Amino acid sequence: MTELLLKRFVPQYEEVKEPAVRERYGTLSGIVGIVMNLLISLSKFVAGVLTGAVSVTADAFNNLSDAASSLVTLVGFRLAGQKADDDHPYGHGRMEYLAGLAVSVAILLVGLELAKGAVEKILHPEEVSFSWLSVGILCVSILAKLWMYLFNKNLSRRISSAAMAATAADSLSDCVATSAVLLGLLVAHFAHVSIDGWVGVLVAAFVLRAGWEALRDTVDPLLGQAPDPELVRGIQETVLAHPEILGVHDMMVHDYGPGHMMATLHAEVPLDADMAETHDVIDDVEREIMHKFHVLTTIHMDPIAVNDEQVNARKAQMLAIAQSVDPAITLHDFRMTEGSTHTNLIFDLVVPHGCALSDEEVRKEVERRAKELDPTFFTVIQIDHSFVG
Fold first, then answer.
1. What are phi and psi of 330, to 5 degrees?
2. Beta 377-384 vs 343-350: how paired, if at all?
């Protein structure tokens, strides 16, 4: 069914890296969500009126809020698909995250209102009527929400969308919540025990949980989460596949929304290589990364000495000292200048965020151990932190 809808409504649906195609995915998800949730909400509202069950009515309003959330998602994808302009030179891709944030807040507000109504029902219980029509409506609703979960999960996996993943999770929680409502009706009818208010609380809890998880998934990229390790590894492997490049460091990936990513990195090249030829290689690598990953990349060349045995030996010594402080520390941009009374060792250390020592403590400890190794060593250390996993 999902494949059929994609073929019918999303031209070139396999080109998921293209912003225009991504926008059409969001439009399809939003329209399907609006139509399905409105139908489900109306059906449950009828069932709630027939039974007088607050849990059923609460579930109906929950689905009505889902329809509003789908509308927000639809608008968010539309805005995210706008082209860059003078005020937003990096595009509008983060509107997808903002739409997800708005949906998350709406879900949380609905959950709080549902919890309030359910608690009132517990304190002031009312008799619930039983209707097989209501049972049938709830069963169909569960199946419909299960399909919506699979549909949005499929779309989310295809385009790596946190917003659609949140929508899928919300649909799954709706399945569980509606199942609990159905159970409450059956228990009340066959066991003559009213648990309507308590089931309403359970529904509210599921809604609040879905809202919290959706909020977390959309806030993280807005705050600046670490890039996808597979993307980082893919870029590194692409760069290092060129024999003219010896190493990669100081990589940064900037996320301006799905399909709008930029990266910067330093590529180590031999000091004695032809710089014009090496520059051409760097240009080719930047184009290759854009083609393979749709990431606009800027690469800085770092010429390093590779055939000087003494420099390589000193570099290995400094790396061993640094990793004796913390095994996760790495070293790059190593240079050495020898004088009549001392030797300058100039290098950068990448210190992990979880290191127990402060940057200054790491610098002083490496300096102390280098002096112990050779009193003529004078270290000039720049402390860096990795922006990728």
1. -120, 165
2. parallel
Tokens of 349: 């250390």
Element (H, E) at 299: strand 295-304
Distance, in Å, from the CA atom of 376 to the CA atom of 343, rounded to the nearest integer, reads: 6
Question: Tens digit of pLDDT for each residue in 222-234?
Answer: 888 888 889 999 9
Strands 330-338 and 261-270: unpaired
Partners of 337 in the beta sheet?
A: 344
Q: State the first-to-last Cα distance of the chain, in angstroms, to the nearest integer.
A: 38
Q: How far, in Å, CA of 60 to CA of 104, rounded?
A: 18
Confidence (pLDDT) at 127? 67
pTM above 0.70, yes or no: no
Phi–psi pair at 33, nearest 5 degrees: -65, -45
Q: Is 47 helix (H, G, I), strand (E, B) or coil?
A: helix
In this structure, which amino acid lies at residue 155? L
From its phi and psi, is residue 336 left (phi > 0), alpha (psi between -120 and 50) or beta?
Answer: beta
Spatial contact of 381 and 344, defined as CB atoms under 8 Å apart: no
**pLDDT at residue 126, rounded to an integer:** 65
Q: Are the CB atoms for 19 and 93 separated by under 8 Å? A: yes
> What is 308-389's CATH topology?
Alpha-Beta Plaits (3.30.70)
Question: Is CATH 3.40.50.2000 the right assignment for the domain spanning 226-306?
Answer: no
Partnered with residue 269 across adjacent β-strands are 303
